[in-house]
Amino acid sequence: MDSSLGEGKILLPRDIEELIFSRSGLRMVSLADGFLMLNNARYVKKCNVYREGEIECIIRLSSTEEQQSRGVPFQSLEELLLDGLPNFIGLFMWEGKAVVAPLLPGIFTQLTDLRIFGCNKMKKLIPWSLLQTLPNLQKLQVISCKEIEEIIGDEDDDGSPVINSSAEVTMPRLKILLLVDLPKLKSICKGMMICDSIENIIIMRCTNLKKVAPLDGQPSPPPSLKKIKVDAEEKEW
């Protein structure tokens, strides 16, 4: 995209299915904020974002009235790739206190493939309270994000705890989990992961991760699991 689009908002052709942003100089905190008419982004199925220095999140969540006026972006999105976003902190960012920002139905519900590379400011990908936005996620890859400590956060952005070790973290369609070169990663999640469809788990160069969260509450991996690849660092189930 031409960098001249950085100042203004983006008017998309109707029914566009794929978006690619690469070093375009987008001057916006949230990717969704850049669309002049969010209805035109409802049909986007694939979105790739490379080397955009000011993007901090994909969607800002705010008050009920303002959120409804914005519409529901990316409700058809199936694939999302984020690569080299130095200020990116997570998929969502609360505007004000989280308790006044109810979630709109439809956000990311069709997302099946999420890949994140080199987003070094992000400490958690998504809070547990918003995991319901990813019911159809099948592939999750997080690679070379130097500051990430949790994949699924145990606190909301206002600091209030939302999950404990006995809570269930359900990802019903997740098949592939790939975590590579995450030196500060402490946990995938604090609760018990329910992943009935998981087939492949690959964890490499995550030196601070000592234990993989229990899957389905069992001491051994679920029957669906076909492949586990873990580097030389010893990990516990």
Rg, Cα atoms, Å: 18 Å
Order of helices and strands: EEEHEEEEEEEEEEE
Shape: globular
So how many helices?
1
The CATH class name reads Alpha Beta
CATH structural architecture:
Alpha-Beta Horseshoe
What descriptive keywords fit this protein?
237 residues, mainly beta, Leucine-rich repeat, LRR (right-handed beta-alpha superhelix), 8-stranded parallel sheet, two-stranded parallel sheet, disordered N terminus
Characterize the structure shown.
It is a single chain. The protein is an all-beta fold and 237 residues long. The chain has one domain (3-230): Leucine-rich repeat, LRR (right-handed beta-alpha superhelix) (Alpha-Beta Horseshoe), CATH 3.80.10. The chain is built from one helix and 14 strands; from the N terminus they run βββαβββββββββββ. The chain has one helix spanning 64-70; strands at residues 18-22, 46-50, 59-61, 79-83, 92-94, 113-117, 124-127, 139-143, 150-153, 168-170, 176-180, 192-194, 200-204, 227-230. The strands form four sheets. It has an eight-stranded parallel sheet, with no helix packed on it. It has a two-stranded parallel ribbon with strand order 3-5. Strands 7-9 form a two-stranded parallel sheet. The relative contact order is 0.10. The model is unreliable at 1-6 (pLDDT under 50).
Explain the layout of strands and helices.
Elements: E1 18-22, E2 46-50, E3 59-61, H1 64-70, E4 79-83, E5 92-94, E6 113-117, E7 124-127, E8 139-143, E9 150-153, E10 168-170, E11 176-180, E12 192-194, E13 200-204, E14 227-230
Parallel strand pairs: 1-2, 2-4, 3-5, 4-6, 6-8, 7-9, 8-11, 10-12, 11-13, 13-14
